[in-house]
Amino acid sequence: MATNTTHATSQASVSESNRSRIVKHLYHNGISSRAQIAKALELTPAAITKITARLIEAGMIEETGDLEGSKNRRSIGLKLNTTRFRVIGIKFARSLVQIGVFGLCGNALSIENLPTVYDNTIDDTIATIHQRVEQLLDNDPSIVAIGMAVPGPYLRNVGRTAVVSSMQGWRRINFIDEFVTAFRVPVFIEQDARAGALAHYLFDPSVHADGNLAYYLVGEGVGLGVIDNGRLINGFLGAATEIGHISIDVNGRPCDCGNIGCLERYCSTPAIHDTLIADGTVVPGAADMTHTEAARALFAKAGDGDEAAIAIVREVARYVGYGCVTIFNGYNPEHIIIGDIVSEAGPILLDEVRATVAERAIPEINASTSDQPIHLVRRRGGLRCRSSGSDPIPRTPLGVLRRLPKPSADITRFSIRTPDKGTKERNQP
Questions:
Q1: What are phi and psi of 97, to 5 degrees?
Q2: Which of 182, 230, 303, 395 has CB atoms 3.0–4.6 Å from 380's, for a disulfide?
Q3: Distance separating alpha carbons of residues 121 and 130, to the nearest angstrom
Q4: How does DSSP classify residue 177?
Q5: For 72-100, how does the pLDDT look when each residue is reduced to its tens digit (9 = 90+)?
Q6: What is the distance between the alpha carbons of residues 298 and 275, in angstroms, rounded to a whole number?
Q7: Which fold has domain 204-402?
């Protein structure tokens, strides 16, 4: 009996994986025939026929009419049905919490900023999230899943964040207990930087074929997600790649994590805010602003040519660059994608980051990466699906606009499970 159960479970897992592979193929390649999908995924025509029939029945994909095939043969095209289902994305960024509704291709249908969160209002924020999500689910039966991006280091098997610099109250929240079974649809929780790495790897056409990339989140905290040979690096507790708590100055500023001189204390928005308050002149009234407001005020002044503001941005950028050097030396990715609030500083920051890397990174490692291995992403609101028949728009849900003519994504995406590298998929419908 146990053997039969194991076999059934294995078959179900393979079936789910194959369905996901087909959905992923259609996402990246647009309209395709069954024969094209079978060839690309190395599945039998019979398996493809059964799997696509189930996906059509579920409303995930639809037929589009005839396609020109080989030897002048006609075949029926398939495409994603991107209007049938929607998902909710929730981003937890300490003082900033956002709730959005998205199409299956990441196009933002609505984005809501909740009131600024303080240590003494976290419980109120949690209650508001429950209320707003229930409202969204009641008003839109097409919503099929919820994804949450939470600050790290996130202990994925425990459900808690180990440390949250500048707002320790979030450590009290067990995200698994609070949300996983709270709603009528599945809930997926991931550390925010790893969610960003997965989103780019799975859904960003400019890098999804690259098996080695890093998503470097620099916002209210500093985090890192790394895809290594097509696999996400998690670590034993799910708390790997926490670059924000690597010490860059053993005699430096104390950090809430208990360490000294952590990278996060020099280039996050709270660190920028502290600098502006201490300065008192570059951004007048900074003490009365939130971390995000103060950082954006600085970036605006730098963009207008204010020399004092530019100097502060360049100083922040050097620390961001030190983080990039560590990422290159530690993980050797082909790309580093810098995202979240600090990326909004734009070219001033990026140029200084690249100069720092060129000066400090191991030359052979730096030279072996792509021509422009470090990219910024800038905050905007949505992304259009390649299979829609229109040109992709370089926008991201609750995230950032990349400085390349390709789309990207910054919030939790509902990852399509793919087989491990080197594993031969069976033809399982």
A1: -125, 130
A2: 395
A3: 15
A4: I
A5: 667 889 998 888 899 999 999 888 899 99
A6: 11
A7: Nucleotidyltransferase; domain 5 (3.30.420)
